[in-house]
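User: Hey, my collaborator sent me this sequence without any context and asked if I could get a structure. I don't really work with proteins. Can you help?
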Amino acid sequence: MTKYYLSFDVGGTTIKYGLIDSELNIIESNSCPTLKNIDDHILKSLKKITEEMMEAYTLLGIGVSTAGIVGKKGEIQYAGPTIPGYIGTPIKKELEKLSGLPVSVVNDVDAALLGERLAGNARGSDNVYCIALGTGIGGAYFYEGKLFSGAHASANSIGYTLYDKNTKTDYQKRAATLSLEAYLKNFDTSVIDAFEKAKDGDEKFKKIIEDWGDEVARGVAEIILLFDPELILLGGAVAKQDEYLVDLVRRHLKDYVPEGLIQTQIKVSHLANKAQLLGGIAELVDI
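Assistant: No problem. I've predicted the 3D structure and written it out in structure-token form, which is a compact way to encode the shape of the chain:
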């Protein structure tokens, strides 16, 4: 009888979930809304789906990738206003009690990094930093066999770094993909279209993308100088720009890192939306 892992990816608006086989294939996936977590809707949904999957399949374990900061006992230590009432939710405890199976709960950026180590562009790397460019900017660091999360599980909050008191903006307010998207609305252009126009030589959009790339590079420079990782992964939907994004960041890094100190390899994430589901179970499988 085939056995599977059940993995969840909890975001602000949607809970994605899927069954993963021993070859790391996602053989069934679906989603449901978070409904703003009214009346502990997220935890209730995780438990309901787990019960349904246990009735239909033989499970080996359960992984949960989630927005927010995850405490040492697999509870939600901190969550922003996009998921009300989520702080303190004892995900690991409740799912272990329900299923009797091993349960892993990790932050979604950590999960993205773990997924890429498991089956993506960071496969096998023991010193890799992931920067997720999206609605905000999140960071995750895998070092010497484990995730580095700091004394209080809040390390790698890089979106809040590089604060500018004059503009009252931090790194993510200037370099998140959402910030680029908001600026491009002035030109009635999407992020994807702006990149295409820049690639085609449109000077206006080349400058917009170069300026944004410069902001991204400032944060990447901080990571290189502080941690000197073997590899930095750039994640988020903008990772689809592949080598164009990598080259963009590399060009601007030279303005922020002294010559000779840029030895870190830079790649984009490879697994897209699959990364969090695979990363959710990474600590349950042998990698």
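In plain terms: The CA atoms of residues 15 and 32 lie 5 Å apart. You can pass these tokens on to your collaborator as they are.
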